[in-house]
Design a protein that fits this description.
Elements: H1 9-19, E1 22-26, H2 32-42, E2 45-48, H3 55-61, E3 64-68, H4 74-90, E4 94-97, H5 105-115, E5 121-125, H6 126-133, H7 149-166, E6 169-173, E7 177-180, E8 184-188, H8 201-219, H9 227-248, H10 252-264, H11 271-275, E9 277-281
Parallel strand pairs: 1-2, 1-3, 3-4, 4-5, 5-6
Antiparallel strand pairs: 6-7, 7-8, 8-9
Helix pairs in contact: 1-8, 1-9, 2-8, 2-10, 3-4, 6-7, 8-9, 9-10
């Protein structure tokens, strides 16, 4: 892939570190601390707020929004809808993470309501993408489901269909990450198997994507971000840090601090970042 210099993973990482975008997160209880630490490590500024009474004020000062449906209640759903409405109204990028959407009708209801506010990016695993597009899926709870070749191909087609239906970018993460806007598709190689053994890695990634969207918007001359390339850049940086951390980790316990250090020390000038990306047109 040969992205424009201002949209390359390294350039966007530098821009993120220079601007420290404030990311508003409405995420699940398990993911709050890991997400905040991950955003800090990569150079963004996290803000966790789910009280409906302060959403409009928080939205006004935030550069981007990340919504994760892993913890739901009526009041949280109302806060999520209000935050998404504010972001959509104000032209701020926002990311939807439909955690375990296939697990309950409440999660499905919440996602349907949130999709009305047109997320910039939907970050999900294969099972969640399939559930969102309405296909049958045998996913277990909130994990990534079946990684078989046929299932992966079916999920890839579903990701393209979802991107077209919602007019947004879909980032489907797994052994190989796929980012598509329905017209173009970027595959992202890398990462490490231990990333799947640590809770909230995907949740934190969704917020990192939001931070990169904000960085992309900050570099834009016309006030529009390139959500596809910004999302791919976020995934490339995440994959690079995961691979680096996995080289010396003995297991999940030692992986987490190494991953945080790898994000913090990530070399924006590394040619490996862009080399992880492969861009193709979607037919």
């Amino acid at each position: 892939m040969t992205p424009s210099s201002s949209l390359s993973p390294g350039s966007l990482l530098n821009q993120l570190r220079q601007t420290t975008p404030l990311v508003h997160n409405i995420t699940n209880h398990v993911a709050m601390t890991p997400t905040a630490n991950t955003l800090l490590a990569i150079g963004a500024s996290p803000l966790m707020a789910h009280a409906q009474q302060e959403i409009q004020e928080i939205s006004a000062i935030s550069a981007a929004l990340s919504i994760n449906i892993g913890t739901l209640s009526p009041s949280w759903i109302e806060a999520m809808q209000l935050a998404a409405m504010c972001a959509h109204r104000d032209g701020k990028p926002w990311v939807l993470d439909p955690v375990g959407i296939g697990a309950s009708s409440l999660r499905q209801y919440a996602c349907r309501a949130l999709l009305e506010y047109r997320p910039s990016v939907i970050r999900a695993n294969a099972s969640e993408v399939l559930a969102l597009i309405g296909e049958m899926s045998q996913g277990r709870g909130v994990d990534s489901g079946d990684d078989g070749e046929d299932a992966q191909e079916r999920a890839s087609r579903a990701a393209v269909a979802l991107a077209r239906a919602q007019n947004c970018v879909v980032a489907m993460t797994g052994r190989v990450d796929i980012v598509t806007d329905g017209k173009r598709q970027i595959t992202v190689q890398g990462g490490h198997a231990l990333m799947g053994r640590v809770t909230a890695m995907g949740c934190a990634l969704s917020s990192v994507v939001a931070a990169f969207l904000a960085a992309s918007l900050a570099t834009s001359l016309d006030g529009h971000d390139d959500a596809l390339q910004a999302t791919a850049a976020a995934l490339a940086c995440y994959a690079e840090a995961g691979e680096t951390a996995g080289q010396s980790a003995q297991g999940p316990g030692s992986f987490v601090p190494r991953f945080m250090d790898a994000l913090y020390t990530l070399d924006a000038d590394s040619t490996l970042l862009a080399s992880r990306l492969e861009l193709t047109d979607v037919t």
